[in-house]
Amino acid sequence: MSAPAGRGPGSSRRDARGRERGAARADGRGARTASAPSQRRRGADAARTAAFDVLRAVGGSDSYANLVLPPLLRERRIDGRDAGFATELAYGALRLQGRYDAVIEQCAARPVAAIDAPVLDVLRLGAHQLLGMRVPPHAAVSETVGLAREQVGAGAAQFVNAVLRAVSKEPLEVWLERIGDAADPAGEEPLERLAVVESHPTWIVRALREALVAHGRPADEIEALLRADNDAPRVTLVARPGLTSSAEVVAGLPESRPGRWAPTAVVLESGDPASLPAVRRGAVGVQDEGSQLTALALARVPVEGRDERWLDLCAGPGGKAALLAALASERGARLVANEVQPHRARLVERALAALPADAVEAVRVGDGRIVGEQEPGAYDRVLVDAPCTGLGALRRRPEARWRRSPADLAGLGELQRALLGSALEAVRVGGVVAYVTCSPHLVETQLVVKDALRAAARRGLDVEVLDARGPLRDIAPGIDLADRDDAQLWPHVHGTDAMHLTLLRRQG
Ligand SMILES: C[S@@+](CC[C@H](N)C(=O)[O-])C[C@H]1O[C@@H](n2cnc3c(N)ncnc32)[C@H](O)[C@@H]1O
Predict the structure, then answer these.
(1) Which of 143, 306, 339, 425 suits 267 as a labelling partner, its CA being 20 to 30 A distant?
(2) pLDDT digit string (tens) for 180-218?
(3) Ligand 1 centroid, distance to 309 Cα (angstroms)
(4) Annotated binding site for S-adenosyl-L-methionine
(5) Which CATH code fits 235-286?
């Protein structure tokens, strides 16, 4: 379902010049900010309406919140604190949807499946203001009731009023106790309790806990991990070597600081990265610090002899390709970036545009599964940043946890095995392959590597698993890694996405 009629760009809330009606926000006359909601009296404000439209687009037409919201804010000229409010409201309501639905069910005395979808979205927004943001209860209820009246109708507004008043009667801690008890009345299903309280599907909680344990971390860290998934991540920038440095970026941006691990990383404390001149000219990109570490580790691990041709097998949209090409350029090597989807290959071209021409041999559109057969032994370093469930980046993709299902693992697993198999053919003897996922799910990480090594052995390839801790510790001294050859990063430990890295060398 698309955004409700009349609420999209150019709707009745915009005047003939496309400006927000009534508020004269840009002039400051009578401005109402989302962060001072108690001062508002009528209807729904622009920030809440934007958040509502995002939830509708995500729930109704399978859109991605982080693709819908930024252009919507730009079109409606919502900026500054209002933009921050709309973002926190939409993303928070989506991340914590499981928790809020359980609260709403108790207050509405009916299952959420029996509530019309637009009304449920309004209730989720109200619940997040009451239980997840510091919006005064009176303002949260009255503004959200106004939103319901405007978007769904008077009858719905009454229902929303009654439910949100009930929600507002208890603080978050009481609700967490109640929904936890409802999920686990006998006290025998702690994962069910955790799943509802920390707002993750149970299968994901189980998979994340297994991955923690397999990587030498205590099972009870799962709670901290789920909480980290519920926090809004900071924007991390990558300073592309040869084009700029993290020190230069930090010196030019008062609202930034160096990253924790990667020498290329800069944390942006506030502001829109797209507006930064260095980002516009391609010297700097937006990239999670864990992603940076995986690309840096592939470039760091020693190879014997020739080190001239590097391959990024699954390159779109090009974040790691741009970092790899920058690193390749520094030592006279060249990158081939391959991507199966033409529109994503175009994004790779754009990401690589700022790099010296001799750093990039080609950006190709092609199926990575056959590159090994087409170009056996042609590359010195190969990155397989495999398509995956993205369970390691749930904090960045607020709706992803509700979209994914265990059934996704089968199709992705087949693709991941084929891509890694192809990479092991494409790398020369003595060269290295990095297998990377932004998922810690063991089926996508350890199991894929195990199967791909077995299949490679059947084809007569001799492949050694390298200790990824060496290059990672060279890059990030003191980084906390398990006592295993492969490396798993975690949001609650490292502050990065839960990136997985296995490094492999062709021995024969
Ligand atoms: C995890 S993303 C890569 C992210 C990228 N390395 C970056 O840092 O921006 C996986 C990519 O693999 C691509 N892909 C999926 N199947 C593929 C295939 N058979 N061959 C090559 N690329 C494929 C997807 O379209 C997607 O762009």
Answers:
(1) 339
(2) 999 999 999 999 999 999 999 999 999 999 999 999 999
(3) 19
(4) 314-320, 339, 367, 385
(5) 3.30.70
Q: Do domains 25-168 and 289-506 have the same CATH topology?
A: no
Q: What is the pLDDT of residues 86-113, one digit of tens each?
A: 999 999 999 999 999 999 999 999 999 9
Nearest C-alpha to atom 2 of ligand 1 is from which residue? Answer: 387
Question: Catalytic: 438?
Answer: yes
Pocket probe for ligand 1: among 294, 296, 327, 339, the residue whose CB has the most ligand atoms within 8 Å is 339
* Residue 278, amino acid: A
- Cα 333 to its chain centre, rounded Å, is 31
Q: Which residues contact residue 409 at a Cβ distance below 8 angstroms, ignoring those fewer than 6 apart?
A: 389, 441, 443, 444
In this structure, what DSSP letter does residue 314 have?
S
The terminus-to-terminus CA distance of the chain in angstroms comes to 54
Q: Which CATH superfamily is domain 289-506 in?
A: Vaccinia Virus protein VP39 (3.40.50.150)
User: Which residues have C-beta within 8 Å of that of residue 173, sequence separation ≥ 6?
Assistant: none
Q: Ligand 1: does its nearest atom lie under 6 Å from the Cβ of 34?
A: no
Query: Residues 469-482: pLDDT tens digits?
Result: 999 999 999 999 99
Domain extents for the chain? 25-168, 235-286, 289-506
Length of the chain (residues): 508
Binding-site residues: 314-320, 339, 367, 385
| Mean predicted lDDT score pLDDT of the chain | 91
Superfamily of domain 25-168: NusB-like (1.10.940.10)
390 C-beta closer than 6 A to ligand 1: no
- The residue annotated as part of the active site, out of 115, 360, 438, 489, is 438
Range 376-390 average pLDDT: 98
Dist. CA 344 → ligand 1 center (Å): 8
- Give the atom of ligand 1 at the shortest distance from the alpha carbon of 418: 19
Q: Is the CB of 417 under 6 A from ligand 1?
A: no
- So what's the pLDDT on residue 34? 43
Q: Is 406 exposed, middle or buried (0-12, 13-18, 19+ CB in 10 A)?
A: middle
pTM value is 0.91
Backbone dihedral region for residue 335 (phi beyond 0: left; psi -120 to 50: alpha; all else: beta): beta
The ipTM estimated for the assembled molecules is 0.99
